[in-house]
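User: Can you fold this complex?
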Amino acid sequence: MATDLPTTQRRIVLRRRPEGLLAHDDVEEVEAPVPPLEDGEALLANEVLGIDASVRSWLSPAKGYLPPVEPGEGVRCSTVGRVVASRCPAYAVGDVVTTLGAWEEFTVIRDDLFSTWLSGPDPTYDTTAFLALCGSTGCTAYIGMLEVADVQEGETVVVSAAAGATGSVAAQLAKLRGARVIGITGSDEKCRWLLEELGLDGAINHRTEDVSARLKEMGARADVFFDNVGGPVLDAVLSRLALRARVVLCGAIATYNDTGKAPGPSNYLNLIQQRATMTGFLSLDDIPRFPEIGARLRAWEQEGRLRYHAEVFEGLGSSVDALNAMFTGANTGKIVIRLG
Amino acid sequence: MATDLPTTQRRIVLRRRPEGLLAHDDVEEVEAPVPPLEDGEALLANEVLGIDASVRSWLSPAKGYLPPVEPGEGVRCSTVGRVVASRCPAYAVGDVVTTLGAWEEFTVIRDDLFSTWLSGPDPTYDTTAFLALCGSTGCTAYIGMLEVADVQEGETVVVSAAAGATGSVAAQLAKLRGARVIGITGSDEKCRWLLEELGLDGAINHRTEDVSARLKEMGARADVFFDNVGGPVLDAVLSRLALRARVVLCGAIATYNDTGKAPGPSNYLNLIQQRATMTGFLSLDDIPRFPEIGARLRAWEQEGRLRYHAEVFEGLGSSVDALNAMFTGANTGKIVIRLG
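Assistant: Here's the predicted assembly.
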């Protein structure tokens, strides 16, 4: 074990459940104890915290696939860091590990499903790239697009939140399979990024354009729709399904800040007309496969076939702004918080 | 060819598109010509007209899998009758044939996908039983339950409109496969019928009971939900899905009388939580297999393993009431109109 271990740390805890966007005074930065390690535990010094839509959903009271974060608890998120002390045979000091931690400087990890060893001591290991491309974000895109939707060459694919962390990877993976890919996003700048940087075949700004009408203009009916958004965007694409379309539900960011119940997609009956399928999935089920999938994504990135963009916020104090950037549509790609 | 063929007939035509339930003056009974047969045609004297939810949906302007019925045209429906004249090698005088006809005494048929030869001349052939069990109704139930949902022994199955023509067959087919089957219907009397006559394991009256709460009380989560109804019933069952549930969308009778757009199922996000699938199908795609499937259903009925109930209305003049009975929830089983 290393000496001079921290006994306290900075952590951001939930004070009360947010209504809508997370307000600065819904959370509180506190000094929290770092408990001494027990057998089987290691201490991870977090280097980057990953923001994704589920961070917000865990703050709502609804029971999901993980219990909601309770007031007084740290705000749950993925993190990547380096081991600073270990009483667990799976981890040595200096190892790079990703875990389901929180908005905090240190996380106690175990050798379980939620923590994955990434690398031995390697000062050049790019922890931001990992979160943006090879962690749960990229694996979710991979599983949803290549396995659940099983997109085929020549198919027409529509991706919502296409400039977001998951959507941008999903869209590129569909291109790699030889599909025609149309991305839906929330600004003209992001539309340009989709077309010019990611090489998509079409881009629609859902804030200024009629999604259904634009798809029609493009002569596009979706064989696959990879939906991160829900709400009116889902409804619009449901009106433009191809025969035997597969709608893959990855999330519904449009609804995560709602306190009441969001209306459902009134065009769902087109699933009958088009003999189509709408399937929900949680990449969580495939966590044991993340290292293998992540390695494949990393290889494609190194061959120049996959790109990512990370929006970096600095310091724990930027956490609330980082989370909200996700919902205001300000970001392109993955949002991460880099700790000092 | 037979002599003394009719040159005119009674037919009910659409005068204007209904709003909500079909009103008596939305249609008109007229005397219409029976055109002389051309080569390849035969004339069917309709004996029974079949009512199902699609009859109403075809009166709405929305383009579906068949074009909407236009004002001035006969009200489209399935019929079964006997051939009274033929210039088509596929049919002889006296043959029993089912077709996609209309609310009319005679239908001109051809040897195409929409007409199926059922039997040679046979005065005992039960045309009502055919419509109730072995025609498109029963085949839809068979394909939806046994093929699309592919229900397995021991699974929990929920069927909406379970006392209706399609639902009652679907529910019994799930029982035949060894599933636990809970039917949702609209009256206590129909609940009793489901339990006592069809032998279902549970029945819920959605007009007086909270569907979601009752399923919870029964400890039931749906592995399969066969939905004929849509609306609040669909939403309620979506809140009680088992892991990897299959929701099979057969129709949405709750919405067919709506003129505006019905709200979608706001609980659709449970498809993500439960890694579930919602699939639409149209049995129309399998019309060539209807004779084979119908024969299987007929055999099960004769072995006493499948039951049906037919609600018989007498005469063309009862057509409007027959159609509306379907939506007011007054009927059990299949609604047919018997012509004089």
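The interface with chain B takes residues 64-65, 230, 235, 249-252, 255, 261-282, 285 of chain A (CB under 8 Å). The longest strand of chain A covers residues 76-86.
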